[in-house]
Amino acid sequence: MIEMTVAGIALDAYTRSPIVLLKDGTNRRALPIYIGQEQAKAIVGALEEQAPPPRPLTHDLIGNILDAWELDLTKIIIHALRDSTFFAVLCVEKDGETREVDCRPSDAIAVALRTRSPIWVVEEVVAEASIPVDREADEEDRQAFRDFVSNIRPEDFAAVQSAREPNEPETEP
């Protein structure tokens, strides 16, 4: 899994739908997730550390329930992507026992921001749905790989094979 943070909220240029943008720790990949207007407002409010409203809204209510029952939101996990829909769970702990509670990623993110809980995304989801942020760094990685491949010699493979099978006799090519 990859720990990610909220980079911000954006609007889709065509639909004007809000998108929460998660970024990885290296700032090289971002995961865009389309969300609803209310969840976008809740996430922006948490990011800007706005004062809570006089009456708790849904995400504040969830935080209040966690506090009242002395539950610890240890993390949220965005664990699947099926038919363009992301799936997430809240990982809630009490007295050493952890339970996973199914929820929408947008709600999970809003609650995680309020409780200062980490946001994790399964690697396969990041690989499938992320977008590169730092194209220059990606090109540097590709060039480094091309350089590596262009400098490989047949002897390098023999050394790897010997290292894997120490009891095998070495043979000359």
Outline the structure in words.
With 173 residues, the protein is α+β, with helices and mostly antiparallel strands. The chain folds into two domains: 2-133, Bifunctional nuclease domain (Roll), CATH 3.10.690.10; 135-168. It is built from six helices and eight strands, in the order E-E-E-H-H-E-E-E-H-E-H-E-H-H. It has helices at 37-47, 58-68, 105-115, 123-129, 135-150, 154-164, and strands spanning 2-11, 18-24, 29-34, 72-82, 85-94, 97-103, 119-121, 131-132. Strands 6-5-4-7-1-2-3-8 form an eight-stranded mixed beta sheet. Strand 2 and strand 3 (29-34) form a beta hairpin.
- Helix-residue proportion: 25-40%
How many structural domains?
A: 2
Largest sheet: 8 strands, mixed
What is the overall silhouette? globular
CATH topology of the largest domain: Bifunctional nuclease domain
CATH top level label of the largest domain: Alpha Beta
Give keywords.
6 helices; 32% strand; 8-stranded mixed beta sheet; 2 domains; 173 residues; alpha+beta
Q: What's the arrangement of secondary structure elements?
A:
Layout: E1 2-11, E2 18-24, E3 29-34, H1 37-47, H2 58-68, E4 72-82, E5 85-94, E6 97-103, H3 105-115, E7 119-121, H4 123-129, E8 131-132, H5 135-150, H6 154-164
Parallel strand pairs: 4-7
Antiparallel strand pairs: 1-2, 1-7, 2-3, 3-8, 4-5, 5-6
Helix pairs in contact: 1-3, 2-3
